[in-house]
User: What shape does this take?
Amino acid sequence: MCWIAIILLICLTLFLVWASADVGGNIYLKSLCRGDRADKLVTLTFDDGPDEVMTPKVLDVLQKHDIKATFFVIGSKVEKFPHIAKRIVAEGHTIANHTYSHKATFPMSSYGAVLEEIQRCTQAIEKATGKLPGLFRPPFGVTNPILGKAVRSLGLQSIGWSIRSLDTIESKSREEVCRRVAGSLHPGAVVLLHDRCDGADRLLEMIIAEIKRQGYNFAPIEEMLKIDVYEV
Ligand SMILES: [Zn+2]
Assistant: This one.
């Protein structure tokens, strides 16, 4: 009997780790991770900005190619660089919630602390841009029952991704990161990028060229996922 209990316990533990770590697992929180499989469309998302140096460069590249992306911003950075948050919105991109401080300990936070992290980010975005974000992306893609409850109680839609570029791994060349995205492309892809990383603008140019070369078009997230991106 004992070894059966141990095996069950190991299975349960593995399941709980998987359910927490995979944003697309949809166990604790339903996250939208891809669009319609019939449309040859891709949507680009950028996390962890606004960055004083890289975000304006990324915005320049998007403007040059007339592509609308989504920026999951950190509230404390929005307070530091409100003019960049304003520019994101002014140029037709979607601005969305990625917590106030993106602490490493966020997944272990209490219900009250999670609510506060999300609400403070919303307040920072609203103050800088006048927009009330309706979309949320969990830091590190980690979910748990407390986060699920908080996001639902605030009426936010959680957004995951279907292609993780791994652009935050500095030892990977930008060419390598581009190849990873290019090799994973599929209809309805939601691509995860970071506008805080060095060379984000150069990587974006390469990725755009590759996506076009493979015959895909770009769509804003609201069109791709058929959702409202702001609360009214
Ligand atoms: Zn993040």
